[in-house]
Amino acid sequence: MIKTFLVFSVLAVAASAQPFGVGLKVGVPATDAYRILPFPTFAVFDATAKPFTWGPYAELRLPAGMAVEVDALHRNHEFLTAAGMETAQSWEFPILLKHRIGSHIIKPYFEGGVTLSHISDVTVVNLSNRSNFGLVVGGGLEFKFLFLRLAPELRYSAYALKTLDQQLGESRRGQLAVLFSVGF
Fold first, then answer.
1. For residue 41, what is the domain's CATH number?
2. Which of 81-85, 102-106, 179-183 has the lowest mean pLDDT?
3. Is residue 165 part of a domain?
4. C-alpha dihedral over 88, 137, 54, 27, to 10 degrees?
5. Chain centroid to CA 16: how far?
6. For residue 150, is it within any domain?
7. Is this structure's pTM higher than 0.85?
8. Burial class (CB in 10 A: 0-12, 13-18, 19+), 6
9. Is there a domain that residue 120 lies in?
10. How many CA atoms lie within 13 A of 39 on its CB side?
11. pLDDT, greater one: 118 or 7
């Protein structure tokens, strides 16, 4: 793990002057992923998304402050039923067109694109859709510090389908996240 990080760091420093960037995004959801419905029953059911999203990103920097960014964001979900607790893995793959404004150390930017997602390792809960797609919009500020690019951002994902759609609970199609990226 440490060797991988060191190799990644050396390659990232070498790539910092290139039109290609890589980095890591971490974040927290600003909205709940699931809504438990007030349905009178004796059944036990709860669904939560862990409050931490993380994953790598890569971007191709284009002229005029434009860039194409691809992320691979991971998140855990927990489902509690009468059969027990189950943890599921979720991956989201946004493909974004990003536009940076200005040429200073601090650059505001906005982004938009599409996203694909997939949730796996679920056996107890019957999901309506394991795979999903949707639109993404967001914005933030990018700070240049030495060879690093630091960027807090807000990102809204609007999904076409509900992953969970049952009498006891449902997934929300719109989710807001606060992300922070460190890149080269």
1. 2.40.160
2. 81-85
3. yes
4. -110
5. 23
6. no
7. no
8. exposed
9. yes
10. 14
11. 118
Domain count, the chain: 1
Between CA 108 and CA 120 the distance in angstroms is 35
pLDDT at residue 130 is higher than 70: yes
How many CB atoms are located within 10 Å of the residue 127 CB?
17
Q: 182 near 59, Cβ under 8 Å? A: no
Which of the two residues, 33 and 156, has the higher pLDDT score?
156
77-91: pLDDT as tens digits: 776 766 677 777 889
Q: In angstroms, rounded to a whole number, what is the distance separating the alpha carbons of residues 77 and 90?
A: 7
Q: How far apart are CA 100 and CA 78, in angstroms?
A: 37
Judge whether 155 and 137 are in contact, CB under 8 Å.
yes
Residue 43 lies in a domain: yes
Residue 51 to residue 116: CA distance in whole angstroms: 20
Domain that holds residue 14: 2-70+79-145+155-183
Q: What is the mean pLDDT of residues 28-50?
A: 62
Query: Comparing 34 with 121, which gets the higher pLDDT?
Result: 121
Cα–Cα distance, 155 to 30 (Å, whole number): 10
